[in-house]
Amino acid sequence: MEGFGAWLQKQMTDKELDVGELALKLRLTDSAVYQWLKNDTRPGPDSIRRLARILRIDPLDIYAARDRVRPPSAERDPLISEIVAGLEMMEPAELRRWWRMIRASFEEETEGEA
User: Fold this and answer.
1) pLDDT tens string 71-110
2) CA 42 vs CA 39, 79, 81, 101, 108: distances in Å
3) Which of 65, 72, 77, 78 has a beta carbon 3.0–4.6 Å from 7's, enabling a disulfide?
4) pLDDT of residue 17
């Protein structure tokens, strides 16, 4: 096994996940995960977002493993990468609440400067 399949297998081993557990968490079939492991298919954007949450890694690292390109995150400030990874792990409703809070904070700062 090599390529994305080998990379995914290592991630699964590191997180102590088997195919069935990962498939269940991804809301996919075992067969879909096996196809990734055999390099028969590759995960799409929705699966990559879910996989990043489950593995607690930056989705750009998954794209890099999938497409064999250097992730842009390798050139970013580590704090930015950590923030992006944290945001990717949030559920949509939680992300919307967070974004409203950030926008409100900026609006308060702007009003105070006027």
Assistant:
1) 554 566 777 778 878 888 888 899 889 889 888 887 776 6
2) 7, 29, 23, 36, 44
3) 65
4) 95
pLDDT digits (tens, 9 = 90+) for 13-67: 999 999 999 999 999 999 999 999 999 999 988 899 999 999 988 888 898 888 8
Burial (CB count within 10 angstroms: exposed 0-12, middle 13-18, buried 19+), residue 39: middle
Which residue in this structure is represented by tokens 């409100």? 104
Would you report the helix, strand and coil content of the chain in percent, each value rounded to 5? 75, 0, 25
CATH number, domain at 94?
Answer: 1.10.260.40
The Cα 83–Cα 49 span in angstroms is: 15
If you write DSSP's letter for every residue of 53-106 in order, what string do you get?
HHHTS-HHHHHHHHHT---GGGGS-HHHHHHHHHHHHS-HHHHHHHHHHHHHHH
Both tokens of 80, joined, read: 């930015």
How many structural domains compose the chain?
1
